Each structure stands twice: as structure tokens, then as C-alpha cells.
Amino acid sequence: MHAIEKYFTFETLGTNLKTEVIAGLTTFVSMLYILFVNPSVLGAAGMDKGAVFTATGLTAAIATIFMGIVARYPIGIAPGLGVNAFFAYSVVIGMKVPWQTAMAGVLIAALIFLLLTFFKIRETIINIIPQNLKIAIAAGIGLFITFIGLVNAGIVTKNEATMVGLGHLTSPTTLLAIFGLVITIILMARKVPAAIFIGMVITTLAGMLTGLIALPNHLVASVPSLSPTFGVAFNHLSEINSLQLWTVVLTFLIVTFFDTARTMIGLATQAGFMKNGKMPRAGAALMSDAVGMTAGAILGTSPTSAYVESSAGMAVGGRSGFTSVITGFCFLLALFFSPLLTVITSQVTAPALIVVGILMASNLRDIDWDDLAIAAPAFLIVIGMPLTYSISDGIALGFILYPIMMIATKRAKQVHPLMYVMAVIFLIFLFAINR
């Protein structure tokens, strides 16, 4: 125990073993929902839910334990909500790309991501994209996954006259989803730790009591096999051979590039880790995400992200990497509870998507709405994602308009040359897929 306390500098950080264990458990419970939501989202793309469940848990464990031991921060990492929706609903369902090929795209993006992080040029690339556009991407993804959640809940449905409309709110399954959404929002508003997970549990129990969800045959079972997804990406690398698919790779890179960095800096600021405006061991922290994304692509899941829910563990005193180690090992133990997948229906996961979308949409307040040259491209990104049902299309619209507006307002020199390159790539991409 003394070696652990010394390595993780408990005394310097003003913490102890008991506090770190409690913090690790708290972060785990707060993040646990992704273990059941991710298989639901990627399952819509035709992937084996059991294999995705295992891949999600293992990826979270690998990345979070790496974060704890190497970077020594109490930050959890797991496959992210939003980018998994892009993978399933935009790439596989929308573009009709086989999930195996899409996973190969994730692997290529992950390997590029790993190299850029290793050679310490990731932060340079992040700075190329204007802050307002980065904010818009986060907010747009929030609206996108909220729309998916509303559809999965049955609250929003197709309408031939108006394209979309209100669903059948009296449907028992829709009422269950609405109940879960209200409960989860109330828990979030009251700042209850692990509100999303607790909301899912309450919704599931309500579904069982009303007969809308069948009781599981058992609670514990052997870990589901990874064979349907493990290493599949390697066998389909040669299929990444078109502008459309390379644009998908670029989108994975753009979204994952700054998402984790932004979350990590926010968490580090909240916990008081920042020194002179900089995050110590930032390279190791970013490498944790790169390792997680690479491992996830090999195991068979969408890209990873640092979880803002880590703040729950910090709130109860978690300050060292040992918090992350505990969180990671908890994900390994959770792999034996795969039978619960049968009770986590779309009505149970829909509230989680909607609530996370609400949280991500809060980024809208930071966009400079008074500068139309910036606000217009940002707005197209935000509104384009849900209305085109594609994260990449939304990004494309904003990235194309941004340099045009900057040239028109005589600020062309403020635009990084690579932004012009990306604008041309996205322009060709839009015309290529819509010809």
C-alpha cells in the first residue's frame, strides 16, 4: 500500500487510499451507462451487441487504467456518445457503408491520431480549427444525438406532410421513455451523482413492473465473445479507397481531436490541476485517449473520449491516477453482467442520449453570435448535423462557408492554410456524394 501511496503521491495531493477507491467507484457508476448504451447504438449498425459490450468495457478499462498509471489523472475514458452515433447512423445507415469498412476507417483515424499524439503535434492541429467552429461541432453533435434519442423514444416520428412530427405519445413504450426522460432530467437538475445511470435503472424497473420489459433469465454470465468484431478492421483496410471514406476518416479525426482535449482541460481546471494555464503531463493524458481509440478500433468499438462524468469522482475527493485505476478495473468486473443487455431497450437508452445532447448543446452559449462571419458557419454546423442526419455533412457546410466569409470580410490571413484545404476537400465530398 505504501508503494501505491508513494507512486500516486497521495500526500502531496492531500488524498488517501479510501478516498481514491470511493472516487473511482463513483466515476465508474457515473460512466456505467455507456456500457449498455454503446451496444444499443452500434447494434443499430448491425454489429453484434454482445461483442460491442465486451469491446466497450475492455476499451474503457485499457484507456482509463493507462490514464491512471501513466498520466496519473482521475479521468475516465470510454467510447464516446456522439461519435458512436456518427459511426452508426451517419456512416453505416446514412452512407450505407458496411460496419466492417467503417471500423477500418476508425482504425486508420486511430493510428494517425496515435502518431500525431506521439510526435506532439496534436495540439498544433487542434489550434488550426477556429474555436467557434469547435464549439459548434460539440453543440451540433448534441442536437444530433438528441434527435436520435427522440426518434428511438417514439416522441418524434416520420411525417409525410411535414417530414417529421410528434409521435404517438399514448404508446406504452413511448410513455416509458418519457417517464425515463423526466426522471433523468430531474435527477440531473438536482445534481444527483450518476443521474443518467440511476435514470436508466429506474426506467428499466418501471418497464419490468408494467410488463414492457421482460425479466432477464440471469444476472451474471461469462463475458460475451469478441470474435464478431475483434480484428475485423484489419481485414477491410483496403476498402478505404474513396473520397467519401477518407472524409469519414477525417471527420473521426476532427471530432476526436479536440473533444478529449477540451474535456480534460475543463476537468483539470475544475480540480485545480492547471499550472500557469497549462495542464501538467498533458501529453500522457492525450496519449491515453489515443491508446484507447486504437485499442477500441481493434476490439470493435467507436472512438473514445474523456468523460465529463469524471467530475463526480473528483467531487468526492479523487485527485490521483489511482481513482482511474479503480474505475478501469470496475469496467472489467462489469463485463460479467452482460445478461442485463436484454433489459436495456431503446426506450431505456433514449433518455440518456437526449440528456447528454442537452449537456453538449450548452456549448452554444460560447459562440460569438455578434460576428456573422463566424456565427453563420457555426450555425450551419449546428443545424446541419440533425437536419442532414450526418455529422460529417454538418461539419462540411460550416467548414466550406467559414473561409468564404473570412475572405469576404477581408480577414483571409486569419485563416490557417489547412482550413482552405479542408474546405476544398469537404466541397468535393458534398458534390461527390450528392451527384
Question: What are its keywords?
Answer:
435 residues; mainly alpha; two-stranded antiparallel sheet; globular; membrane; Azg-like_bact_archaea; Xanthine uracil vitamin C permease
Give your account of this protein's structure:
The chain is mainly alpha-helical and 435 residues long. The chain has one domain. The chain has 19 helices and four strands. Strands 1-4 form a two-stranded antiparallel ribbon. Strands 2-3 form a two-stranded antiparallel sheet. A hairpin with a 3-residue loop joins strand 2 and strand 3. The longest helix has 29 residues. The protein is globular and about 60 Å long. The mean pLDDT is 92. It is a multi-pass membrane protein. Keywords: Cell membrane, Membrane, Transmembrane, Transmembrane helix, Transport. Its main location: membrane.
Topology overview:
Layout: H1 2-7, H2 10-13, H3 17-31, H4 34-43, H5 49-71, E1 77-79, H6 83-94, H7 99-118, H8 122-128, H9 131-153, E2 156-159, E3 163-166, H10 172-189, H11 195-209, H12 243-271, H13 282-299, E4 304-306, H14 310-315, H15 321-334, H16 346-361, H17 372-388, H18 391-408, H19 417-433
Antiparallel strand pairs: 1-4, 2-3
Q: Major beta sheet, specifics?
A: 2 strands, antiparallel
Please bin the fraction of helical residues: 55-70%
Number of helices: 19
- Principal-axis shape equals globular
Strand order of the largest sheet: 1-4
Rg, alpha carbons = 21 Å
The percent range for strand residues is: under 5%
Question: Mean pLDDT, as a whole number?
Answer: 92
User: How many strands appear in the DSSP assignment?
Assistant: 4
How many separate domains make up the residues?
1
Instruction: Detail the poorly predicted runs.
Output: none
End-to-end separation? 64 Å
Order of helices and strands: HHHHHEHHHHEEHHHHEHHHHHH
Structural class estimated from helices and strands: mainly alpha
